[in-house]
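User: What would this chain look like folded?
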Amino acid sequence: MEKRLIETPFEKGEKYFYFCEYDDWEIFLEIVKVVKEKICPEEIEYKNWWDAMSGYFIKDGIRIEMNYDMSGNELLYKDTGHSQDLEKVRSWVQIIWDELQKQHGN
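Assistant: Here's the prediction, encoded as C-alpha cells.
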C-alpha cells in the first residue's frame, strides 16, 4: 500500500483524516510533536494506553481529536458550522503530513 493522506466525511459534518502507511504508535508521538512545534495549539493533551493512544488539541477555538489504535493514526474534526475552520484544519493536517513525509520519505 502507498503512503497517502485520506480525508473522509462522516456523520454530522465530521471529517476523518487518515495517515495511511504511518500506522504505528511512534508515529502518533511524532504527530503530537509536530502539533506542538509547528501548529502551536493553545491546549494539547494525550494519553498513552497499552494498545491505543488518544488525545486532542485546540487551536483557534477548534478542537481536533487525535487517535491511534491498531488500524493506524487519524485526526477527527467535528464541524463548527464555519467553512473557514475546515480550511484551517486541512492546512494543519497538511503540515503534519508534510513533516511525516520529510522524516520518513515518500
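The mean pLDDT is 93. If you want, I can go into more detail on any region.
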